[in-house]
Amino acid sequence: MIPIPCIKKLNQNPLKDGDYVLYWMQASPRVHTNHALEYSIKKANQIKKPLLVFFGITNQFPEANNRHYTFLLQGLQDVQNALEKQGINMAIQMVSPPEGALELAENASMVVVDRGYLSIQREWIQKVIDGLQCPLIQVETNVVIPVETASSKEEYSAATIRRKINKKLDEFLIPLKREKLSTRFSDLDVDSLSLDDVDSIISRLGSKSKVVPVAKYEGGTGNAIKLLDTFIKHKLDKFPDRNDPSTDYLSHMSPYLHFGQISSLHIALEVLKTKSPGKSAYLEELIIRRELAVNFVYHNHEYDKLKCLPDWAYNTLMEHRKDKREYIYSFEEFENAETHDPYWNAAQLEMVHSGKMQGYMRMYWGKKILEWTQNPEEAHQIALKLNNRYELDGRDPNGYAGVAWCFGKHDRAWKEREIFGKVRYMNDQGLRRKFKMDSYLDAVNNLVDSSVS
């Protein structure tokens, strides 16, 4: 059963006598636990039509590079294979996603689309709404609780959204029933890319970025589920100690969640089956914190600018924007890990060479960019640019919220100090006091050595 709030009619057009139901798969490229796919199959069965799944690959997605495209394409191979086993046709095209959806919709009875939250994804949806002649149904499947159901306004902190989410969890923490397609295509003449040669597609996309794919993470739902299984069996119990950079008690689900290759509902249900002492801490991150980030990006249209901050944080940073900095680094120096701080440099190198940064170090990393840059506006843009360029889980609500947190978002005021004002401060002494930082440095050095060898 798909909870009703997950389903939203985006227009009032009547059903057409088309050749198929079209599922425009864009934010949720997976077959496993995908409400939009199951809804599409259900509707196709009701009107006795086959189902066509469409995915558009564009070289115009902001800040996407070869690292991101490779991970995406690896995941699409999973999707294509899984759909084929169910007798469902898929069209993967190198085209502007809304233009491709509109073209295929000309022969569709109706269109179903999953939901993304960034401004570009919402612009795509609006273009299709404006040009479509048949019904368009949006089915939300990348969060546990639909963003508008969780809250009708931007939430101030985890504490304010937690109460609202917890009241509604029982309604949405429900396993998704699988549907079987009844009607198949007897013949279908639709162009689709072959995913046999990912490197060739990357070349055709024409990305000039020097950011290379990483070996540590390989895209695809199958890989995500294997990682999740390992995490639950071997790391979940220790998850409350995840902040220690010298350990690895993380699930590493964020790249797969970013690309829609695994469902947060599936992860939550699997974790809930356990009796692990780390269960509550993990679900807090997966549901409360992650959906607070979605709430932020959905309700705050300046999510990628410093003005996204609460007034107290923005004002205190402006009051201290001319404070003297002991160190000032350029974007290139940050990018090349050329600061005086070995811990910051290690965090940057971890991100560059693995596609992901340890969570506590990402907070420290962002705070120091604020401290070592000419002004807060420049610091915010540098942090976003680096995060979006190198992180597999950048360029999404969690990424934007995580960077903004370093500047005071979703936090409270602290004791006032230079440069930071009342924004929370972090330093290297705290790292050494709490953690075995030499072990972290050794692990990053080994990572760098293995990735360049």
Features:
3 domains; Serine Threonine Protein Phosphatase 5, Tetratricopeptide repeat; six-stranded mixed beta sheet; DNA Cyclobutane Dipyrimidine Photolyase, subunit A, domain 3; alpha/beta; 453 residues; Rossmann fold
3D architecture notes:
This protein is α/β, with parallel strands linked by helices and 453 residues long. The chain folds into three domains: 4-142, Rossmann fold; 144-178 and 219-299, Alpha Horseshoe (Serine Threonine Protein Phosphatase 5, Tetratricopeptide repeat), CATH 1.25.40; 302-452, DNA Cyclobutane Dipyrimidine Photolyase, subunit A, domain 3, CATH 1.10.579.10. It has 19 helices and six strands. The protein has helices at residues 35-46, 66-85, 97-105, 119-131, 147-150, 158-172, 198-205, 221-234, 254-258, 264-272, 279-299, 311-319, 331-335, 342-354, 359-371, 376-390, 397-405, 428-434, 437-452, and strands at residues 7-9, 20-24, 51-57, 89-94, 108-113, 136-139. A six-stranded mixed sheet has the order 1-6-5-2-3-4, sandwiched between helices.
Give the SSE map.
Layout: E1 7-9, E2 20-24, H1 35-46, E3 51-57, H2 66-85, E4 89-94, H3 97-105, E5 108-113, H4 119-131, E6 136-139, H5 147-150, H6 158-172, H7 198-205, H8 221-234, H9 254-258, H10 264-272, H11 279-299, H12 311-319, H13 331-335, H14 342-354, H15 359-371, H16 376-390, H17 397-405, H18 428-434, H19 437-452
Parallel strand pairs: 2-3, 2-5, 3-4, 5-6
Antiparallel strand pairs: 1-6
Main sheet, how many strands, which sense, barrel?
6 strands, mixed
Residue stretches low in confidence (pLDDT < 50, at least 5 long) are none
Order of helices and strands: EEHEHEHEHEHHHHHHHHHHHHHHH
Q: What percentage of the residues does DSSP assign to strands (E)?
A: 5-15%
The geometry reads as globular
The radius of gyration is 22 Å
Q: Distance between termini?
A: 50 Å
- Determine the mean pLDDT: 97
| Helical residues, percent | 40-55%
Structural class, from secondary structure content? alpha/beta
| DSSP summary, beta strand count | 6
CATH domain class of the largest domain: Mainly Alpha
Domain Photolyase/cryptochrome alpha/beta: 19-147
Protein name: Deoxyribodipyrimidine photo-lyase
Catalytic activity: cyclobutadipyrimidine (in DNA) = 2 pyrimidine residues (in DNA)
InterPro entries: Crypto/Photolyase_FAD-like_sf, Crypto/Photolyase_N_sf, DNA_photolyase_2, DNA_photolyase_2_CS, DNA_photolyase_N, Photolyase_Class-2, Rossmann-like_a/b/a_fold
